[in-house]
Amino acid sequence: MSPAMTSLPDDTTLTDAGLEARGSGRVLIVACGALAREIIDLRDLHGWTHLDLTCLPAILHNHPDRITAAVRETVQKHRDRYDDIYIAYGDCGTGGQLESACAEMGVQMIAGPHCYSFFEGNTAFAKRDEITAFYLTDFLVRQFDAFVWKPLGLDRHPDLRDMYFGHYETLVYQAQTDDPALTERARACAARLGLRFERRFTGYGDLERHLTDWAQV
Amino acid sequence: MADEEDDIILSELNDEELVEQMFDDLYDGLKDEIEEGVQILLERGWQPYDILTKALVGGMTIVGNDFRDGILFVPEVLLAANAMKGGMAILKPLLAETGAPRVGKMVIGTVKGDIHDIGKNLVSMMMEGAGFEVVDLGINNPVESYLEALEAEEPDILGMSALLTTTMPYMKVVIDTMVEKGIRDDYIVLVGGAPLNEEFGKAIGADAYCRDAAVAVETAKTFVGRKHNQLAAG
């Protein structure tokens, strides 16, 4: 096992608690828990042993108003221990507040509105301009109940489904990996929401490009 | 043994008890019970407007307050709204017949690029409950739709809603176009949606940002009252 390899917490832990930094390495990535597996895969693949990772609870995705303060606090907590800190978040519903906070703290973040956009590539995603698509990534397919079904109360009141999703047409599964079992789970999610299913393989998209840049520093 | 709740026969309750029970039923999102309660009050000679304001809006206000305070969440509010909608469907034609007071008129719609209409629908419903005539433009509205509706409907208020940070800037496009055409000050412009805040509302030139449906109703009433006073004074 290479020194860079990390045993990853399970998805539920990444959703609710996130991931603590190891405390070693020159560069710290502060990321959404929904990106933990992808970032660690890339780190291991490229041998970026100097990269450390800490993740905020992925469920903040459902509470974007809490993201900026949580990132700010995490950066402040780790600032003295690393040469550089980077933020693996898009705007993620913060309405520019995260970008302002990052500029103020002098740290870079990922360009783009959210992970759906940077996984596909911001330019390609914007070009699609598809307003009736509901997106899931690998992580969100695995955590569909925690992020979608339960918070919207559909486990208790499935009849509310059309009030939430009546104007959507397609569930787009942005696949970061080739995993037939996960594709079937995504297809089942689409069926539960009453939406047409489409799978798009994105790989790691702009996430890999940003991490590569940050790892070179 | 049957639940105590199951034993309540709405028609056996006096008016006060029935309205209290309707508050509970709205809170629990029980549409059938709300519809039954409305029918009973009508049979007892209540005016449709009184049923709307005292039983339905009264109950929904409690729901709204508990949502604001973090006691209830979106699914419960939706169920309550659905129950209220059932009651309003009975009352609406009667309200038109009985000449219920009209507080003002609002055109409302979700902005271009945004298909999320839960908040807008709640506002529409509560505004109707408060005596406003509401023209609902639905979702994904370009500036032209708003302008056409303003011209055709001559409302007091324009309401715009957005759920996404990527679509909320479009509200400014609409307001700027109204300014360009010299019609901005003819209307009260209210904006709302989860990612918005008061600062954003001010920055884009809206009259007010409304945090939730209850605030939208109160804000609308205040602004319309002010407008009427200005007209009276002028």
UniProtKB/TrEMBL annotation, chain B:
* Highest taxon, organism lineage: Bacteria
Q: Which GO terms describe its biological process?
A: homocysteine metabolic process; methylation; tetrahydrofolate metabolic process
Q: Which residues form the B12-binding domain?
A: 103-234
Record domain B12-binding N-terminal: where: 9-103
Q: Which InterPro entries match?
A: Cbl-bd_cap (IPR003759), Cobalamin-bd (IPR006158), Cobalamin-bd_sf (IPR036724), Met_Synthase/Corrinoid (IPR050554), Meth_synthase_dom (IPR036594)
Q: Which GO terms describe its molecular function?
A: cobalamin binding; metal ion binding; methionine synthase activity
Keyword annotations from UniProtKB, A to Z: Cobalt, Metal-binding, Methyltransferase, Transferase
What Gene Ontology cellular-component terms does the record carry? Answer: cytosol
Which family is this protein grouped under? Belongs to the methylamine corrinoid protein family.
Q: What is this protein called?
A: 5-methyltetrahydrofolate--homocysteine methyltransferase
